[in-house]
Design goal:
eight-stranded mixed β-sheet, alpha/beta, 15 helices, about 500 residues, six-stranded mixed β-sheet, elongated
Length: about 500
């Protein structure tokens, strides 16, 4: 094993969207840029994402959408209850469309997903939620194009190399130390350093502690918090890091790990997802109803509602409902929020029996039996079902205001089934306190010299726990904040 000293103008740790954008922005300023990446390829967690949030882009203009960045800024600020960093939000939103075009110039093909085609049906008629999604096309080739663009610009990549710590001299960050897969270490001297390591979504224990529940499911992202830990160790403050919770999944289901042209990450090939993604009766682990189930038509609201009861809940159906779905006579619209439902037909009773056998669902000929098998309180479940059936019969839900059109399936005829559902997360968002130029701030709200960040390590774009339901928001923030961070780092390095 060896120890090697490297010298560079700008060091970028991580090569997801944030790191790639930061590296290219710095290289365009004529500086020497080195990128270290723990995986053997670029893209990081951004590879999971499928689109980029931008307002007043050329694609939107061509589609006849007349959208105002002022409106978007106002909406995001209001959603965040004014707890976000207003200057940062403004800088990101006003820079996103230009950054999107810049990304296309790097080699990523983009196609606007019009509002009418949104998979989150709650966003229909709202261009700011449904028409903000600029979807990546042919992503594998796109990332190859981007890597070549950066290498042609002089960027050096060191793969299978993980950030260990930052180097500091009298409070100024002067580079970092890293280690490769073979145990060789690197002492990297840099005039400016950009941390783009993607949060800590791979650390299940840290996520469970932050989210105060052990029940969330992950898609297995690689980020372990190397960057955010190093920044905090060197004077930064974790302002608002949290899991990016994203829809829910059937328990123990096999899901796709990546986004392709066919399916989004988290997709499961099971007709049972048609039940998961339809507004059935949802109850908490004790058997109590807890929300308007129409939240299933909005990825964020669905995840938030389910997280409020621990991130794990049951949807309860009876045999008549399974028969209706098997016969393909379901009158309700099956949501395609999150990874979407598998709309291929199936024998729902057969699948339900298999789920019971696999201990991902519970069955009972009576509600008492169902409650006993699932560990719910029988009296609570029976009272919940009785009240829900009254709402269905009356087409009126005084408890949670579910619309009449969704009050279709009562729970009346056994056998009864309760399926386990769990909130999924795609990594973490939020992070350390930064200013609008992505300088990392210390506890006195002053920039830490030589240190910059973005994407899933930067705080202030979200108010904390809840991710605003604007399609492509996190991915757009990654690229746009990375570009700004790389520009700021380049300016700092050039001046030092």
């Amino acid at each position: 094993m060896t120890n090697t000293t490297l010298d560079t103008d700008v060091l970028v740790a991580g090569s997801g969207g944030t790191g790639l954008a930061a590296a290219y922005a710095a290289a365009q300023k004529g500086l020497k840029v080195t990128v270290i990446e723990k995986l053997d390829q670029i893209g990081g967690n951004t590879r999971i994402s499928s689109g980029f949030f931008a307002i007043n882009s050329k694609e939107q203009q061509a589609a006849g959408l007349h959208m105002s960045t002022q409106e978007a800024i106002a909406r995001l600020t209001d959603y965040n209850h004014f707890l976000g960093n207003g200057a940062l939000i403004s800088h990101i939103v006003n820079s996103a469309a230009d950054t999107l075009e810049w990304l296309e110039g790097m080699g990523m093909e983009i196609k606007l997903n019009p509002t009418a085609n949104t998979t989150q049906y709650a966003h229909r008629g709202d261009d700011y939620k449904g028409g903000s999604y600029h979807m990546y096309q042919h992503k594998e080739q796109g990332y190859k194009n981007i890597q070549k663009t950066l290498e042609d610009a002089g960027v050096t990549f060191k793969f299978n190399t993980t950030l260990q710590d930052l180097k500091s001299d009298k409070g100024e960050i002067t580079g970092a130390t890293a280690v490769d897969a073979d145990g060789n270490t690197f002492d990297i001297n840099a005039k400016a350093t950009v941390i783009a390591t993607g949060g800590y979504g791979g650390d299940k224990e840290a996520v469970a502690k932050k989210m105060r529940t052990p029940y969330l499911r992950t898609l297995g992202v690689p980020s372990m918090g190397e960057g955010i830990k190093a920044m905090i160790k060197n004077g930064a403050t974790d302002l608002d890091s949290t899991a990016l919770i994203h829809a829910a999944q059937l328990a123990k289901s096999t899901v796709t790990q990546t986004t392709s042209d066919s399916h989004l990450a988290g997709f499961s090939h099971s007709a049972l997802t048609q039940l998961l993604l339809t507004p059935m009766l949802w109850v908490n682990l004790n058997g109590k109803r807890f929300t308007n189930e129409e939240t299933v038509y909005d990825t964020v609201e669905w995840a938030n509602a389910a997280w409020s009861v621990s991130g794990k809940y049951y949807f309860v159906v009876d045999q008549a409902t399974l028969d209706t779905f098997t016969a393909e006579k379901n009158p309700l619209e099956v949501s395609q929020a999150g990874p979407g439902a598998d709309t291929e037909p199936g024998d729902l009773t057969k699948l339900a029996k298999a789920a019971v056998e696999g201990k991902t669902a519970f069955e009972g000929n009576t509600l008492d039996e169902l409650a006993a098998n699932a560990g719910m309180d029988a009296d609570t479940l029976k009272a919940t079902v009785a009240k829900y059936n009254e709402a269905v019969a009356a087409k009126n839900d005084p408890e949670f205001s579910k619309s009449a059109k969704s009050l279709v399936f009562p729970v009346e005829h056994g056998p009864y089934y309760a399926f386990i559902s769990q909130v999924a997360y795609l990594g973490t968002v939020g992070g350390v306190r930064v200013d609008e130029n992505l300088d990392v701030l210390d506890t006195n709200f002053k920039p830490i010299p030589g240190l910059f960040t973005g994407g899933a390590n930067a705080g202030g774009y979200y108010e904390g726990h809840s991710y605003p339901a604007y399609e492509g928001l996190a991915s757009g923030f990654s690229w746009t904040s990375g570009r700004i961070a790389g520009t700021s780092a380049a300016e700092y390095a050039a001046a030092h």
